[in-house]
Task: structure prediction
Amino acid sequence: GSVESINRHVENARKATGAQRILEQQFAGLMPVVAPCMTGAAEDQRASVAFFDGEPNVIRFVSAYSLEEAGRGRPQILELFATAAEDGQGLRLVVNEIPYGSPPSAGMMCTLQNSDVGGVPMLTFPPPRSSPRSFVLADRLSSVSFAYQEITTAEPYERWLPRWVRVDVFPSAVRIDMIPLTADASRLPPLPFFARIQVNRSIGEAIER
Result:
């Protein structure tokens, strides 16, 4: 019994650290894509924006890292989001991979429209959907939340936002906070995830198009 308990603990720890490594590689492979998103009903009404969706419960971006083919595969549009567990026991953090073809194909997913956040234009996307191909990064969670770091010119020179509304630049970092559904000494709790985004250019400069 002790050996089985140790084996379960080791396996749970391996899963937790494996999920951390996957997230690290996905964000390390972030591609600063500028996509022509729709701004109106007409097909030619488009605007070039930084292709990044930062919601309180969804993150969407293009990454050179693929779960199936690692760093050697085709770039993917990643959708990270929380969804209800199949057994009804809390939430799980999952990721979808959508093959990335080109900035115009990515632009078909987004619409630029005025928001209720100060009236500034922001990107909107269709809600993500889990499927049998969705990869589970963490489960048995009571809550999952995303936050986005913005560099400012005044002290404290940075701030964390629950939603990323800027379309001219990418956030400087992303944080994912996860709280387990129940305390379990035999399971390694999900660790908070933090990743810096190494993009220091605005969309007016020459980046992936």
About this structure: Residues 2-14 have pLDDT under 50 and may be disordered. Residues 141 and 180 are 4 Å apart (CA to CA). The chain is about 15% helix and 35% strand.
